[in-house]
C-alpha cells in the first residue's frame, strides 16, 4: 500500500512538472511572438502607389500602411568636405575667470548651460565668436542681456563680464560657431537634392545635435587612410578646399538622420544620372548586399553581409547591423572607418540604407540606417 501511494505521488509530481513545462513553453512562445512582432515588424509599412496591399490584423500590434510614390535616387559614395555654421553661437561650457584683483569668478555659471545658443546681446544679433567678443568688450562690466535658445525655448538672462588682469572683459563661456569634417554623400536626386552621413552632426563636447543656420559641401581630397583596429576606429584623413570655386552644394538641414540640402556643379556631374529605386524597410533582407564607396580613389561596390534588421529600433541610426566581407575593403580600411558615414548600401539593385557607425571592438562590423528612414527625414 505504501509503495502504491509513493508511485501515485511521483506520478502527480511528474504530471505537475509536465504541465509546468508546458505553461512555461507556451508563455515563452507568446512573449517571443510579441517581441518579434514589436521589433521585427515595422510600425509603419510604406508601399508604392503601384502595389496592391492587403492589411492583416497582427493581433499584438497595429501597423499603419502608407501609400506613396516609390522614390528613385542616384546613389553616392563620394567623400565630401562639410562646413556647418551654428544658429547663433553655440555654448560648449562655462569656465572660471581670474579678475584683475586675482580673484576667481564664474560669471556665467548656473546661468548659461552647455548646449545653449547665444542669439543676441543687448538686442544685437550674434552670429560669430568674433561678434560676441567684440560686443562684450564694448559693453565691458555693465549688465548685459543675452538672448538664448535652449532646446525649444527662447529666454533672456542677465550677465556681467569680468575684467581680467590684461584689461580684457570675459564672460567665462566656451563657444563655437562652426564645424568642419569629412563625410560621404549617400544619394542625390536628378534635381540635385542630396542626403549625406546617415546621422546628424553633434558637438564633440556635449554630444548634442547641432542646430545650424546653414552650411556648404566642398571638394575634398583624401590624403591618407588610417586602418581600423580593434579598440581604435580608423579614419579618412584629407584636405578640404574652402573656396567658392570648390563649393559642391548647400547644406540646409542637420537632422538625426543626416544632413540634407542641394548639390550642384561638379558633384552632380560625378554622380551621373542613373537612378535606382529606394527599398522600403520590409523589403530589406539579411544576407548579401554591397557598400558603395570611392575610398580607394575609384567608386566601387564592396560586398557586405546584413546580419540583423531592427525595424523599430529607437535609435534610427542603428536599424541594421552588417559586417564587411570584401577582402579588398578589409585590406584597405580594416572595415568601416570614420569618414565613411553615409556610404550607400544597396541590395538587389535598390538603395536600402547607409553606413552610420562602426563597432569599436570590431571594425569589420557596423551599423546602418534604413534608406526609407533617411529619405523620409
TrEMBL record:
EC number of this enzyme: 3.4.21.116
Enzyme type, top EC level: hydrolase
Keyword Hydrolase: yes
PROSITE patterns: SPOIVB
Superkingdom as given in the UniProt entry: Bacteria
The keyword GTP-binding belongs to this UniProt entry's keyword annotation: no
Keywords: Hydrolase, Membrane, Transmembrane, Transmembrane helix
One GO MF term attached to the UniProt entry: hydrolase activity
Name by which UniProt lists this protein: SpoIVB peptidase
Lineage: Bacteria, Bacillati, Bacillota, Clostridia, Lachnospirales
Amino acid at each position: 500500500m505504501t509503495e502504491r501511494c509513493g508511485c501515485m505521488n511521483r506520478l502527480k509530481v511528474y504530471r505537475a512538472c509536465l504541465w509546468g513545462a508546458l505553461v512555461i513553453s507556451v508563455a515563452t512562445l507568446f512573449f517571443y511572438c510579441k517581441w518579434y512582432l514589436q521589433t521585427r515588424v515595422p510600425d509603419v509599412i510604406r508601399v508604392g502607389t503601384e502595389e496592391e496591399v492587403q492589411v492583416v490584423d497582427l493581433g499584438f500590434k497595429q501597423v499603419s500602411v502608407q501609400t506613396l510614390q516609390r522614390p528613385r535616387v542616384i546613389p553616392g559614395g563620394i567623400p565630401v568636405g562639410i562646413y556647418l555654421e551654428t544658429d547663433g553661437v553655440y555654448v560648449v561650457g562655462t569656465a572660471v575667470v581670474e579678475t584683475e584683483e586675482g580673484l576667481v569668478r564664474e560669471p556665467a555659471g548656473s546661468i548659461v548651460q552647455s548646449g545653449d545658443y547665444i542669439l543676441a546681446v543687448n538686442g544685437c544679433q550674434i552670429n560669430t565668436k568674433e561678434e560676441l567678443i567684440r560686443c562684450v568688450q564694448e559693453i565691458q562690466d555693465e549688465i548685459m542681456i543675452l538672448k538664448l535658445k535652449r532646446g525649444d525655448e527662447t529666454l533672456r538672462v542677465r550677465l556681467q563680464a569680468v575684467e581680467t588682469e590684461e584689461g580684457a572683459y570675459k564672460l567665462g563661456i566656451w563657444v563655437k560657431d562652426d564645424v568642419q569634417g569629412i563625410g560621404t554623400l549617400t544619394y542625390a536626386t536628378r534635381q540635385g537634392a542630396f542626403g549625406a552621413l546617415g546621422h546628424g552632426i553633434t558637438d564633440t563636447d556635449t554630444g548634442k545635435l547641432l542646430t545650424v543656420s546653414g552650411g556648404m559641401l566642398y571638394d575634398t581630397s583624401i590624403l591618407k587612410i588610417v586602418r581600423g583596429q580593434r579598440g581604435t576606429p580608423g579614419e579618412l584623413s584629407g584636405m578640404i578646399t574652402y573656396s567658392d570655386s570648390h563649393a559642391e552644394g548647400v547644406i540646409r538641414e542637420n537632422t538625426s538622420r543626416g544632413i540634407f540640402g542641394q548639390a550642384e556643379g561638379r558633384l552632380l556631374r560625378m554622380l551621373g544620372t542613373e537612378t535606382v529605386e529606394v527599398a522600403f524597410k520590409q523589403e530589406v533582407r539579411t544576407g548579401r548586399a554591397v557598400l558603395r564607396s570611392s575610398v580607394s580613389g575609384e567608386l566601387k561596390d564592396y560586398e557586405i553581409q546584413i546580419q540583423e534588421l531592427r525595424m523599430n529600433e529607437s535609435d534610427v541610426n542603428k536599424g541594421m547591423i552588417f559586417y564587411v566581407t570584401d577582402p579588398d575593403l578589409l585590406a584597405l580600411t580594416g572595415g568601416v572607418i570614420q569618414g565613411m558615414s553615409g556610404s550607400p548600401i544597396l541590395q538587389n539593385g535598390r538603395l536600402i540604407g547607409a553606413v552610420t557607425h562602426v563597432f569599436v571592438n570590431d571594425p569589420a562590423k557596423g551599423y546602418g540606417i534604413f534608406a526609407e528612414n533617411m529619405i523620409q527625414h
